[in-house]
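Bumping with the actual sequence this time:
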Amino acid sequence: MKTKFLVAALIGCISLTLAVTTVRAAEPGKPSGNPWMPVAENDQVKVELSPSTVGYMTVEGVRHVRVGGRMTYKDTGLIDFTVFVVPASACRAGSGMLVTVPIDVNQKSYSTQFVLQGGTLASIVADLLCEAHTKTQESAASRSNGRSLTLNQI
C-alpha cells in the first residue's frame, strides 16, 4: 500500500523530481558535460545516477531520499529513466527497500531489498543515497540551512 502512495506522489511531482536533461555531443577536445554518473553494472544492466537530482520528498509523513537515474539494458540497448527512492530511516537502520519508479507511467514500479555495503545494484544505489543523506545531516548540524544534497561530494 505504501508503494502505491509513493508511486502516486512521485508521478505527481515528476516534473519537480527530474528536470529534462539534454546530453549534447561533445566538441572534439572538450568534455561532454554528461550529467550521468555511472555507479554500478552487472551482466544485464548499467545503472547511472544524475547527481543534480538528489533531494528529499515526504510521503505519508515519512522522509525519503531520492535521485534520478537511468538503467541501460545491455542486451537491447534500451534505456529506462527512473527515480530511485530510499526512506531516510532505512539509512539509519542499515537496510530497507529501494523503490524504483520508472518515469514512463506505463511501466510498473518495484521494490528491492538492500543492505548497505551489500554489493548488489540496489545496495550500491542505496549506499550513495544514504551517504548523501548522512553528509546532509552532518552539514545541517553545523549550519542552519541543511537542505542541499549532493552526490558530487561523495
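The C-alpha cells above came from a reply further down the thread. The chain has one domain: 2-18+36-142.
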